[in-house]
Design a protein that fits this description.
The complex is a heterodimer of chains A (about 290) and B (about 190).
Chain A: H1 3-15, H2 21-33, H3 35-53, H4 62-73, H5 75-79, H6 83-90, H7 100-120, H8 122-145, E1 153-154, H9 158-165, E2 189-198, E3 201-210, E4 213-221, E5 231-235, E6 238-245, E7 248-255, E8 258-264, H10 270-278
Antiparallel strand pairs in A: 1-2, 2-3, 3-4, 4-8, 5-6, 6-7, 7-8
Helix pairs in contact in A: 1-3, 2-3
Chain B: H1 19-30, H2 33-50, H3 60-80, E1 84-85, H4 90-93, H5 106-125, H6 128-139, H7 144-151, H8 155-172, H9 174-183
The chains are: A alpha+beta (about 290), B mainly alpha (about 190).
């Protein structure tokens, strides 16, 4: 740990009233003569105040508390279960299996929501489904950026990627060749792909690089993924839906039974986002 | 087994008071509300099964956080070798107003909610290592040693990681932070 890091760590301890003795005296003496550390102390104190004022960061939902109280209050019931059954129930992700007490209520509520939703407010349902696809695309993009989703196939060839996805996804996936700017330079470079899951179906994640920006394309069957809402941009027979989520721009569209979500951190309006790649291309006039 | 002697309601169950903290920890690890709920629930299920092995002097809070983290790491390991199931619930992240009560005036509540959401968004932009250390130290107020036990690293590493995480967060939060700094500025003696 460098001297600067040591001062920084001691400043944090000082703010937490956990610094004493010689270390405290040493820090206070240092603060007297170091303007940088005094400024750092002020900044860290302000940050600590912000943490205090925003506690708790999240609030556990009441249904979760109720479920856990039910689990914790019935230890004997779990112990009575056969080992194999218990292991199956305890697998992470099998959330509904643990909620038998709520199953019928949840099922009834779900039926009411679905019936009313589909008959009275189909647009709301459609937009909610579209939002789910967008959120999944953003989460997938973030995970890819953070290297939690390593690529399963690396290639810059659209044809190779199309061949790799054959038989792996429940739709006819074909990746078009990347368009080139005048002079023969591609606007973006294909980097690779992997399989992901969307609503229990395989979906395709295709990644691109444009200068220093990572761009991802989530591709799923339109049976499970919907493109709707947001700012609409029309290009020929296609309608693109432009949304922003957590400083990321997401453009979704559906065609030929497939729904796409293109995620990037490229800033600008809906039309501008399209123009980033298409500005010098022959189809630039078609984005309205 | 998971209950204090001679008590029955959920409020008296050992460890239940940590649900809120565990849920926050699960949220910063998974960044997904449904997965966070699953993770907390699974943590309690595993904890109940292992209660008999817990020594009386054990730190139940640290123990629960360690279980949660281990379950999540196992889940991540499995995902690296299998097709992914990612369903982000970003909308859910902004739900909840924390400890503010209905007695707070609407404006205070509104500002507080905005501020919390901004902090949440900034924290969620940090790498996982930074997210969890900010949460454990600054929100759950675990000691450096408790965090070191949970993360299975030396306390000195915890301190240096925390300093780095706070520095990144300060940069991300500069606007919010400057506002707070101006209103709550304290004179250094």
């Amino acid at each position: 740990m460098s001297a600067h890091d040591e001062h920084h760590a001691n400043i944090l301890l000082y703010l937490d009233n956990e610094l004493g003795g010689q270390e405290l005296e040493y820090l206070l003496a240092h603060l007297d003569e170091c303007a940088d550390c005094r400024r750092l102390l002020e900044e860290e104190r302000a940050l600590s105040n912000l943490f205090h004022s925003t506690r708790p960061l999240y609030t556990a939902p009441e249904p979760l508390r109720a479920r856990i109280a039910a689990i914790a209050g019935q230890p004997a019931a779990f112990g009575d279960k056969p080992e194999g059954k218990q292991n199956h129930l305890l697998r992470f992700g099998w959330r509904n299996a643990r909620r038998s007490g709520f199953r019928w209520m949840a099922l009834a509520a779900m039926i009411i929501v679905v019936v009313f939703g589909l008959t009275l407010v189909p647009t709301v349902v459609r937009h909610a489904e579209a939002a789910t696809f967008i959120d999944t695309a953003v989460a997938t993009h973030r995970s890819y950026e953070e290297k939690q989703l390593p690529l399963e196939f690396r290639s810059s060839s659209p044809e190779d990627l199309t061949a790799w996805f054959a038989g792996k996804v429940p739709f006819q996936f074909r990746l078009p060749s990347s368009q080139s700017l005048p002079g023969g330079h591609p606007a973006y470079a294909l980097t690779g792909a992997r399989l992901v899951k969307f609503r229990n179906e395989n979906a395709a994640l295709v990644t691109y690089q444009m200068k220093s920006e990572a761009i991802s394309l989530l591709v799923a069957s339109d049976k499970s993924a919907v493109a709707a809402g947001g700012d609409e941009i029309r290009s020929g027979s296609l309608t693109f839906h432009y949304n922003t989520r957590a400083e990321l721009n997401v453009i979704t569209w559906s065609t030929h039974g497939i729904t796409y979500a293109l995620v990037s951190s490229i800033h600008g309006s809906a039309q501008h986002s399209c123009m980033v790649c298409h500005q010098d291309m022959a189809d630039q006039g078609s984005f309205k | 087994m998971f209950q204090k002697p001679n008590t029955s309601p959920a409020a008296d169950i050992v460890g239940v008071e940590h649900i809120g903290g565990l849920f926050s920890y699960a949220m910063v690890l998974t960044r997904n509300r449904n997965e966070a709920e699953d993770l907390v629930q699974e943590t309690y299920v595993r904890a109940i099964g292992a209660m008999e092995r817990l020594r009386p002097e054990s730190n139940v809070k640290s123990w629960l956080y360690t279980i949660l983290r281990n379950i999540w790491l196992n889940e991540l390991r499995q995902r690296r070798t299998a097709p992914q199931r990612v369903e982000m619930d970003v909308e859910g992240i902004s739900v909840g107003i924390g400890t503010k009560t209905l007695d707070d005036d609407p404006y205070t509540l509104y500002v507080s909610t905005l501020e919390r959401n901004r902090v949440r968004e900034a924290i969620q932009q940090l790498p996982a290592e930074s997210r969890e250390i900010i949460l454990l130290r600054e929100y759950e107020e675990l000691s450096y040693q408790e965090i070191a036990t949970i993360l299975n690293c030396p306390a000195g590493t915890v301190m240096s990681r925390l300093a780095r995480a706070r520095a990144k967060l300060r940069a991300l939060l500069s606007t919010t932070w400057q506002t707070t700094a101006q209103s709550g500025k304290e004179v250094i003696e």
